[in-house]
C-alpha cells in the first residue's frame, strides 16, 4: 500500500468520511480511508441485551465512559489518554473524540432535522453572522438522497423553515409514548407544535439492515443495522465495491503538498508501531471532525502556507460553534400510578417541539435571534431498579409504604431539553497550543469559547416557556430555575461543534467554496462540520452527510473531466 497512489485519501470514517467513501468508491474511484481510532464492528461488539445490573457500577457513567459502561464509544470521550487539549484562560470547552471506526455515528442520538431556507441565509434575515454560499434548494436533492439511503423516520408537517421530504422518503414514525402525548396536549393548549421527530432509525428494512424492534439502547450501537452507523451501512457498501481500503490506528497530522502547492496525500503516524508513514492521493478529503480537521490544517505549514494549509484567509480555526443546551425537569401527578409495561420504543425521541416563533421573531417580538427546539423524555422508565433517583425525592417511609410510593411515582418525571442555535462570535475559536504536544509529538489544540447575550436570552425564553408547559399540565418543577448563565451548557458539551473552516463565496473570508473545496488548494476538500457557515438549532449530522454527498459528486466530476 505504501507505494500506491489513490484517487482520494479520506481522513475520518464518520458521517462525512463514510459518505464520501461510499459516493467516490461507487463511482469507481480508488479510495483510501485513514481512521485515527481502532477498528470496530458493531455486528460483533454491540452488547445489545446486556443488563445494567451486570456491568461495573451498574453501568453508570465514569470519566472514561461518561455515557455509561455500554456506550458504543470504545476508546474515546472528552478526555483521551495521551491526547490532551487546552482551554484558554477564561474559557471552557469540551472536545469529544470518538477514536473508532465510524466515529460519532456509532453513539449519536440519530436526530436528523433538515436545515431550512432561513438557516442557510441567516444574515439576510437578521443581519448577524454570515450567509451560506448555497440556498436550501441547492441541498434539497441531497437531503432526499441521504434520508433515503440512511433511513430516517418522521412525518411531513409543512411547518415554516422545517422542510418536508419528498413523498415516500421518510419511514413511518413510531407511535407516541404516553408522556409525549401528555406534552403534546399541553402544547396544543399553548399553540405550540409538538410533532413526530425525525431520527435515523429504520422502521422498515433497507437491504440487510433490519427495522428497529424497540428493545435496546441505541447508544450501545446496533448489531441489526436499524440505528444508522457508517459501520453498518456506508462503509460496508463502499467496501463491497472493491474500491475502498481502510486503515485504522492511522493518526494523520499533516497534508502533504507538492512543489506546486497541490495536495499530494497526507503524513500519518501508525499508532501500532509509532512510525511516520505517507499516504499518496490525487485528492485529499478531510472529514476528521471540526476540531481535528482544523488541527491538521493549522499544523500543515509550509513556505507556501506559513499559517497552515488552506488558511490564507486566516479563517481556519475561527467561527467555532456548538449547540446551545439547557434542561429542566418536572414531576406530573397525571402520570402517577401508571401500570408497568415496556414503552422504550426507539430509545430516543418519538415526538419533539420544533421552533415555532419565526413570525414573531421577524416582527421583533422576541429579544433573541435564531431558534431552538425541544427534546424530551421520561425519566426512569427502563429496567426496574434503574433511574430511581428522581423517585427517591418523593418516596418516604419504609417497607410497604416505600414500595407503594416507588410504584406511584415511577415514570411520572419528564425532562425538557433545549437545543438552540449559536451565532458565531470572535471570542470562539481554536488554535495550535504553543506549548503542548500529544503522545506522538503532534501539536495540540487550545480552545477559546464564550456564549453571547443572544444565547443567554434564548435559554431564558426556553425556561419561561417550559414553566408554562409544566404549569398547564399540573406538573411540579424539580429544583429551582437557575440563571441562564448557570443553566447553559458548556462549550462542546452537546458534541455538535462546527464551523472551524467555513464555506463561503469569498476567498478572503472563508476557507472553502460551496463544495467544500479549499480556495487555496483545489484538490483538498473538507467534508465534515468544519465547513458550516452557521449552526442552526437542527442537529448537524444529516446536513454533514448531505453536504458530503454533494461535495463528493462534484469531486468525482472534477476528476472525470481532469479539472483536478
How would you summarize the topology of this molecule?
Elements: E1 5-11, H1 15-26, E2 31-34, H2 42-45, E3 86-87, H3 117-120, H4 122-126, H5 136-150, H6 178-189, E4 195-196, H7 234-240, E5 244-247, E6 250-257, E7 263-270, E8 275-286, H8 290-299, E9 324-331, E10 351-352, H9 358-362, E11 372-379, H10 389-392, H11 400-409, E12 413-420, E13 429-437, E14 443-448, H12 453-472, E15 476-477, H13 484-487, E16 524-526, H14 541-560
Parallel strand pairs: 1-2, 1-8, 2-5, 3-14, 8-16
Antiparallel strand pairs: 4-10, 6-7, 7-8, 9-12, 9-15, 11-12, 13-14
Helix pairs in contact: 1-7, 1-14, 5-14
Number of helices, where a helix is a run of at least 4 consecutive DSSP H or I residues: 14
For the biggest sheet, the summary is: 7 strands, mixed
The average pLDDT value, as a whole number, equals 95
CATH topology (level 3) name of the largest domain: FAD/NAD(P)-binding domain
List keywords for this structure.
564 residues; alpha/beta; globular; single chain; FAD/NAD(P)-binding domain; 7-stranded mixed sheet
Structure in words:
This protein is of the alpha/beta class and 564 residues long. The chain has 2 domains: 1-154 and 218-322 and 442-451 and 495-564, FAD/NAD(P)-binding domain, CATH 3.50.50; 166-196 and 324-420 and 453-487. The chain has helices at residues 15-26, 42-45, 117-120, 122-126, 136-150, 178-189, 234-240, 290-299, 358-362, 389-392, 400-409, 453-472, 484-487, 541-560; strands spanning 5-11, 31-34, 86-87, 195-196, 244-247, 250-257, 263-270, 275-286, 324-331, 351-352, 372-379, 413-420, 429-437, 443-448, 476-477, 524-526. Strand 6 and strand 7 (263-270) form a beta hairpin. Helix 1 (15-26) packs parallel to helix 7 and helix 5 packs across helix 14 (541-560). It is globular and about 80 Å long. The two termini are 23 Å apart.
Amino acid at each position: 500500500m505504501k507505494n500506491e497512489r489513490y484517487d482520494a485519501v479520506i481522513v475520518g470514517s464518520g458521517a462525512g468520511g463514510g459518505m464520501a467513501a461510499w459516493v467516490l468508491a461507487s463511482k469507481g474511484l480508488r479510495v483510501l480511508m485513514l481512521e485515527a481510532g481502532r477498528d470496530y464492528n458493531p455486528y460483533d461488539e454491540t452488547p445489545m441485551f446486556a443488563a445494567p445490573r451486570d456491568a461495573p457500577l451498574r453501568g453508570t457513567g465514569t470519566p472514561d465512559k461518561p455515557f455509561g459502561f455500554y456506550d458504543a464509544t470504545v476508546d474515546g470521550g472528552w478526555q483521551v489518554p495521551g491526547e490532551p487539549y487546552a482551554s484558554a484562560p477564561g474559557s471552557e470547552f469540551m472536545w469529544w473524540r470518538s477514536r473508532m471506526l465510524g466515529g460519532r455515528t456509532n453513539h449519536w442520538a440519530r436526530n436528523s432535522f433538515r436545515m431550512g431556507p432561513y438557516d442557510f441565509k441567516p444574515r439576510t434575515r437578521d443581519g448577524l453572522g454570515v450567509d451560506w454560499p448555497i440556498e436550501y434548494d441547492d441541498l434539497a436533492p441531497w437531503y432526499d438522497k441521504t434520508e433515503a439511503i440512511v433511513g430516517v423516520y418522521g412525518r411531513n408537517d409543512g411547518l415554516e423553515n422545517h422542510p418536508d421530504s419528498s413523498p415516500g422518503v421518510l419511514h413511518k414514525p413510531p407511535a407516541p409514548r404516553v408522556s409525549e402525548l401528555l406534552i403534546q396536549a399541553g402544547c396544543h393548549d399553548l399553540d405550540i407544535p409538538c410533532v413526530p421527530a425525525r431520527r435515523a432509525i429504520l422502521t422498515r428494512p433497507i437491504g440487510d439492515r433490519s427495522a428497529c424492534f424497540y428493545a435496546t439502547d441505541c447508544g450501545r450501537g446496533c448489531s441489526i443495522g436499524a440505528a444508522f452507523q457508517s459501520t453498518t451501512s456506508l462503509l460496508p457498501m463502499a467496501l463491497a465495491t472493491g474500491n475502498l481500503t481502510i486503515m485504522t490506528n492511522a493518526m494523520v497530522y499533516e497534508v502533504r503538498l507538492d512543489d506546486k502547492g497541490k495536495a499530494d496525500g497526507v503524513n500519518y503516524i501508525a499508532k501500532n508501531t509509532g512510525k511516520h508513514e505517507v499516504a499518496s492521493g490525487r485528492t485529499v478529503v478531510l472529514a476528521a471532525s471540526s476540531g481535528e480537521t482544523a488541527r491538521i490544517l493549522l499544523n500543515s505549514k509550509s513556505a507556501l502556507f506559513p499559517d497552515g494549509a488552506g488558511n490564507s484567509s486566516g479563517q481556519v480555526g475561527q467561527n467555532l460553534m456548538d449547540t446551545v443546551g439547557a434542561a429542566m425537569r418536572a414531576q406530573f401527578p397525571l402520570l402517577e400510578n401508571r401500570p408497568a409495561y415496556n414503552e422504550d420504543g426507539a430509545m430516543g425521541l418519538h415526538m419533539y417541539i420544533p421552533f415555532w416563533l419565526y413570525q414573531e421573531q421577524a416582527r421583533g417580538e422576541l429579544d433573541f435571534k435564531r431558534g431552538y427546539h425541544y427534546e424530551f423524555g421520561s425519566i426512569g422508565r427502563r429496567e426496574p431498579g434503574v433511574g430511581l433517583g428522581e423517585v427517591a425525592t418523593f418516596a418516604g417511609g419504609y417497607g410497604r409504604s416505600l414500595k407503594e410510593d416507588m410504584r406511584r411515582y415511577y415514570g411520572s418525571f419528564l425532562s425538557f431539553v433545549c437545543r438552540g442555535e449559536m451565532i458565531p462570535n470572535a471570542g470562539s475559536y481554536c488554535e495550535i497550543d504553543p506549548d503542548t504536544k500529544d503522545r506522538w509529538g503532534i501539536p495540540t489544540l487550545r480552545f477559546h469559547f464564550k456564549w453571547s447575550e443572544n444565547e443567554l436570552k434564548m435559554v431564558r425564553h426556553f425556561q419561561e416557556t417550559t414553566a408554562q408547559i409544566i404549569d398547564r399540565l399540573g406538573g411540579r418543577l424539580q429544583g429551582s430555575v437557575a440563571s441562564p448563565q448557570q443553566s447553559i451548557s458548556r462549550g462542546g458539551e452537546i458534541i455538535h461543534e462546527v464551523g472551524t473552516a467555513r464555506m463561503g463565496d469569498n476567498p478572503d473570508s472563508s476557507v472553502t467554496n460551496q463544495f467544500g473545496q479549499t480556495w487555496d488548494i483545489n484538490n483538498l476538500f473538507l467534508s465534515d462540520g468544519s465547513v458550516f457557515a452557521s449552526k442552526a438549532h437542527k442537529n448537524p449530522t444529516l446536513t454533514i452527510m448531505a453536504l458530503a454527498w454533494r461535495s463528493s459528486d462534484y469531486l468525482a466530476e472534477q476528476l472525470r473531466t481532469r479539472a483536478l
